[in-house]
Specification:
By secondary structure, the protein is of the alpha+beta class. 28% of the residues lie in helices and 33% in strands. The longest helix is centred in the last third of the chain and has 41 residues, at 311-351. The radius of gyration is 40 Å and the shape is elongated.
Length: 377
């Protein structure tokens, strides 16, 4: 009883075969079919290689949500060189809550030379070139995110020459922790002193002719310091044309969570608008000479995640390529063969000459064409 049921099951399964086998003796090969097959295999190989390169590549996914963290502190990383001696300038931060952050907590005043060495000038030129390309092609930012911690440091290289020139500038570098509210980081004449209604700078002791707020921003970032990330103001250099000149930077800071295959960090991106003007009270241009960076925080947080094509999707796309090319080339070959046969048939029919009618003895004629022509005599 088991064998008949088994044979019946096998026969039923054979009837469901969607891929019937054709004996090789019934298969006819042709030169056109071989040519189409060669083209199909070559196309499949090229597309497979291209698909594998896409599978190896990654892309950045951007997600936006409301930033609910208002209690933590915001870190500001600073590396600015001002063309004045350190005893003449002071830097501090004042936020909207009228909270003053003393510069002695994290900033270092270091005497330096404002003019760059040839190697440092070349570094600055390359950095400015990258900045200009980033403004034109925003997709390059994804490449920078992927190269974080893998590329070389973006910091200004040390001087390679032992210059005997006396320091004529002040390098202010370090970091500060401020409240997550809008604030104003500024560098102006005189050291900052606390005041019940805010703060003030001791500028009366500095000669007005020594004012020179030409500056170079080697690095400015917010949040966790991530090597390899290029920020919008890195490499910026401004030359003052007057002693009473104000440089203003209006910065919008966006909290950013960066998740790549190499790192996972909480940093901040920012956009900036620049403005500079000469202080002239007689002409109605009021203010204080110095460098002012007014920053404000966005209420949205961006999550940047590096994603990769899953393996199952790669297999499905690969099967689609192979099956699609097989089906398409088969259809094109069939259509082409059909068109060629029609053209050849018309050409052959046009080569036949009409056969004259054969008269019979009773006066009738035979207008039927012979089925076969015998050219043998």
């Amino acid at each position: 009883m088991r064998r008949p049921n088994r044979k019946k099951t096998l026969s039923l399964v054979k009837e469901l075969d969607a891929f019937p086998k054709v004996p090789e003796s019934y298969v006819e090969t042709s030169a056109s079919g071989g040519t189409v097959s060669l083209i199909a295999f070559t196309t499949m190989a090229l597309l497979t290689v291209m698909e594998f390169s896409v599978y190896q590549d990654t892309w950045m996914k951007y997600e936006y949500e409301v930033d609910k963290d208002f209690s933590s502190k915001l870190r500001i990383n600073i590396d600015i060189t001002v063309a004045m001696k350190c005893q003449y300038v002071g830097a501090d931060v004042l936020d909207l809550a009228e909270t003053m952050v003393a510069s002695a907590d994290g900033l270092v005043y270091e005497p330096a030379t404002f003019d760059l060495s040839p190697q440092q000038r070349e570094w600055q030129r390359m950095l400015q070139l990258i900045q200009s390309r980033l403004q034109e092609e925003h997709s390059l930012q994804d490449v920078i995110f992927k190269s974080a911690f893998k590329s070389t440091s973006t910091a200004l290289p040390p001087r390679e020459d032992d210059s005997s020139l006396s320091p004529d500038a002040c390098r202010i570098h370090g970091h500060l922790y401020v409240n997550k509210v809008a604030g104003n980081f500024h560098i102006t004449v005189g050291k900052a002193i606390p005041h019940p209604r805010g703060h003030a700078h001791l500028a009366a002791l500095v000669n007005h002719d020594s004012y020179n707020f030409s500056h170079r921003i080697d690095h400015l970032s917010f949040g966790e310091l991530v090597p390899g990330i290029i920020n919008p103001l890195d490499g910026t250099e401004k030359i003052a044309v007057d002693h009473n000149q104000m440089f203003q930077y209006f910065i919008t800071v966006v909290p950013t969570k960066l998740h790549t295959h190499k790192i996972s960090a909480e940093t901040h991106q920012f956009s900036v608008t620049e403005r500079e003007r000469i202080i002239n009270h007689a002409a109605g241009s009021h203010g204080v000479s110095g460098i002012f960076m007014k920053y404000d925080l966005s209420s949205l947080m961006v999550t940047v995640t590096e994603e990769h094509m899953p393996f199952w999707q790669f297999v499905v796309r690969l099967c689609g390529i192979v099956g699609g090319i097989f089906s398409t080339t088969g259809m094109l070959h069939g259509v082409g063969k059909f068109i060629v046969e029609i053209i050849c048939c018309r050409f052959r029919l046009g080569s036949y000459k009409p056969v004259r009618s054969v008269p019979f003895e009773d006066g009738h004629t035979d207008n039927h064409l012979p089925l076969l022509e015998n050219n043998t005599h």
